[in-house]
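Objective 1b: paired records.
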Amino acid sequence: MDTPHRFDPAGGCPHAANARLLTRGAVAPVMLPGELEGMAVLGHAALKEFLTHPGVAKNARHFAALRDGRIPEGWPLATFATVQGMTAADGADHRRLRSLVSSAFTARRMEELRPGIEKLTSCLLDGLARAAEAEGGVADLRRHFAMPLPMGVISELLGVDARYRDRLHQLSSQVVATDITPERAVAANRELVAVLGEIAAAKAERPGDDLTSALIAAHDEDGDRLSRPELMGTLVLMIVAGHETTLNLITNAVRALCGHRDQLDHVRAGEASWGEVVEETLRWDAPVSFFPFRYPVRDLTVDGTLIPAGTPVLAGYSAAGRDPAAYGPDAGRFDVTRPARPDAVRSLSLGHGAHYCLGAPLARLEATIALERLFTRFPGLELAVPEASLARHASFVGNSVRTLPVRLVG
């Protein structure tokens, strides 16, 4: 077997390493933090097969190292394995947990949310302009626009008061970080659960027309339908996944368009839509790079590579999106006019199969509105620093940059 690819806990741009790994094959051995051996599925076709394979589970009882007591407290990826929510459940448990929140993400509900998203977008653009004026013409688009938009939307769905939102974002960032110390990881997870517990307690006393109140009611009516750990795990997942993915998506799309002005011209000429910008960004610079975890329940061969039972496997979304076998020799080129692909090679960056991202329609809606309104109001918007100087996420799970300084040019 090849020497395992050693993930840098500090993150960094994944694409050069992904390209090298793909030349070796669609599945690669990897070394996770703590010298734990794992695997990553990188090729598009192999990943699509793996995500729906009946011999692959999400429940951490199949995680051999965890089961054997070899995962220490504070391991930076522990939350992905141990959170008691739909992303770590299989079969009937997964369907039960997913059904409790699915009504908040229907197509009808998305259209009902649209006016509120448009209004919030306009307000945030006003705030972005004020920030730029106060900061010498340059503002951090990620801080003032790309983050508060999805955080505001998911908070409204959950009924989370505005005073909690900045802290929830800070804690979410620590939960998905891969360079965090064990002590900080434990503290961040405990505080996140404590903050969400405070929110849940307030909702239990004064229920509202929101998802948190509905989940509490489901727990109170039938603890077998939703246990207390599952309630808290679901809230953790809703907050973290409900804004981090869309935050990265908007940030990456703005970076891509600023670095490829010809592609922005295609949109303005009517040769591509803002929706197609979102789809190409999802493919070309996936907001989640390597998502933990899935576990073969028995020894499994994927694209000619053996993955032993109980191995923690990461879904290599950022690699699959630029797989030449799926997208041709120009897979590394950002092209909003790229011909539509059949379902067989559609982007996997928001998942596939039973665990397909429940919030995918909401993420697409938010990003499409955000990009259209942003570049309509500031058509000459540009990066205020060279792309290469942007500090990356301290994570090989999330894929984006920490800040996005821009000049707002009308």
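Objective 1b, second protein:
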Amino acid sequence: MSAGSRRLFIGGRWTEPEHGHYEVIDPATEEVVGLAPEASREQVHAAAAAAREAFAAWSRTRPEERAEILDRAAGLMLRDLDGHAALARAESGATTATARGMQVAVGAARFRRYARGALEPVEEAVAPQINEAGPMGRAGVFGALAVRQPVGVVTCITSYNNPWANPAGKVAPALAMGNTVVVKPAPQDPLSVYRMAEALEAAGVPAGVVNVVTGSGPEAGEAAVDSPDVDMVSFTGSTAVGQRIAEVCGRGMKRQLMELGGKGAAVVLDDADLDSAAAGIGTTFSFYSGQICTAPTRVLVQRGVHDALLGKLAAYAAHLKVGDPAARGTVVGPVISAAHRDRVESYVELGRKEGARVVTGGERPAGPDRGFYVAPTLLADCTNDMRVVREEIFGPVVVVVPFDDEEEAVALANDSDYGLIDYVWSSDVARAFRVARRLRAGGVGVNTVGRNMEAPFGGFKKSGVGRDVGSYALHAYSELQSIVWPG
């Protein structure tokens, strides 16, 4: 099949889209990467119906068989690593190193992880209970078993910032648990997900177990959510879209797993290692050009070290090479689209109007004549009531708010609609953990922006519903069934 013009993957068949194709644009060059299929509403519902038809047989397959298929698919993904990474870089704007190591390689690693996950026990004994004689029957000792069962058909709607790892983090655990899936990738970079589907097909996934549908507008996603054949929706994206999906899911009593927006607070205490803090916070400027919901975008720094940290962050940003993500040495690539570049730039201008001081950045970077580039930008003299502090910008923009003491730091950090991942920097580990435990966030990094990929991941407040990653993802894509018997 040509990489230039894709077809939908429905019921094990590569299917021509009823609404033609749309162009996928390279955000670094503004050239066309390829043509993605524009599914009709009826085709999306047909994909869900195919997943429903395939569910009965797939859910009854031996775990070992599911594990073998997922492991084989991972091997096929890695076999074509170079080609997959080149496509991912072209359609997402990620640097070559990021496309290889954090997109394709992590995507394949997640299939390997859930190949093992398919073999994890799904039964857990419940302590026996002694019941006296009564209206429900004779006295006896009752045993019980909690059994995790697959949910059914899962719609996976994925974000544009990682076209490999994000879909893999949904599809792999869902399949491992015996679910079937309808995958609706982000419209900006969907071509990589078709590569993933090809690997799964070649690995022996039965027809209908995996289906991929795409569209440039909201129609395909809406159909993938409201189909009566869908039992669960797993979504990564903005809080606003997540809220609309949740309304539809609520009417149909569909299960939800929502990983939504973030405005990560980085609390830097006066005894922190400022070089470590600046390097961690600086990943907002470089990693996916700030297009990541877990980024430490909202820096809360104790006044005694405020100016010193500001200087280190400005120096860090100044040394980052902005440019073509395919070029050696590039650290900051483009944002995903012209519309998103305009949105990020409008937030910087809003910050100026609100009284923030632009320490570095704030102007469109010199360099490539084409492409959707935003200069790493640092805003100081911010207060917690500013929109640039309260709203998710999703770009290489860091805002800095000073505080006086721990109590104020915790209050400022928690004064947010979001609560995905926060961070604390302090050389006193006991102090750092004390502050971390008080933060209303699904995760807290202590002196690091690194992640433990077996730890539960998800958000408080408007940052999401549910938890995944590691074995928690297997739980997320399953329902608990109780089996009770007399002893």
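The chain has a mean pLDDT of 96. The chain has two domains: 8-260+463-486, 265-456.
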